[in-house]
Design goal:
With about 210 residues, the protein is mostly beta strands. It has three helices and eleven strands. About 30% of the residues are buried.
């Protein structure tokens, strides 16, 4: 089980454990509401994009790679060697393939924190509990979770605001362990190959095992 949770943590925290019970969030101030609206508008307009990323897990281990985003719903995280990890969201499911361990796992996108900003219609004011908004000198961060509890985990999105840009996110599980993703120059892309967002189970189909 420990090994499984470690690999799952490496996969961007996509299947983070359920968060602990939390008190109702404090109502946002008008300034905080304005920042939430600003972030919502930016994310809604984020169509196709590409960036390098650096991931740091709760133990301080780091890995990096390239991320491709195509809203709504689609993402591809291609980790650099020797990681062996490939994480793909096809709009409905998130698939995690590990070439080194010869494993393949699949989760509904809606059960992952990333669905909060990959959704077709981003509404950080409906169905989402924004628990914290922090202002920096050159940006801000928004911490949110799915108030319907269909999404497991809590996500903090970090933005620069001059110019407006998504800098990364942090996913926190019930043990308050964090997986951090930092983007290095998220930039618009166009004409991304649809094949980037398709990941099939690479393992041979054994007798008695259905293809995922």
């Amino acid at each position: 089980m420990t090994r499984f949770l470690t690999r799952r943590s490496l996969a961007l925290g996509l299947a983070a454990l359920p968060i602990a019970a939390q008190a109702a969030p404090t109502p946002l101030t008008p300034e905080e509401q304005a920042l939430v609206a600003k972030a919502t508008g930016y994310l809604q307009g984020l169509g196709e994009a590409k960036s390098r990323f650096l991931q740091t897990d709760a133990r301080g281990r780091s890995s990096q790679g390239v991320v491709y985003l195509k809203r709504p719903g689609k993402a591809r995280f291609a980790y650099d060697p020797p990681s062996g990890l490939l994480v793909v969201s096809d709009g409905a499911f998130v698939s995690v393939a590990d070439q080194r361990l010869k494993t393949f796992e699949r989760y509904p996108l809606i059960s992952t924190p990333l669905s909060l900003f990959l959704a077709k219609q981003i509404r950080l004011d409906r169905g989402v509990a924004v628990s914290r908004v922090v202002r920096f000198s050159d940006g801000f961060a928004i911490t949110a979770r799915d108030s319907r509890k269909s999404t497991q985990g809590e996500i903090t999105l970090t933005f620069a605001d001059q110019p407006m840009q998504l800098l990364g996110w942090t996913i926190t599980d019930t043990r308050r362990q964090e997986t951090r993703i930092r983007l290095a120059g998220l930039a618009p892309a166009s004409g991304l190959d649809p094949a980037l967002f398709v990941l099939k189970d690479p393992r041979p189909v054994a007798p008695g095992r259905a293809r995922m």
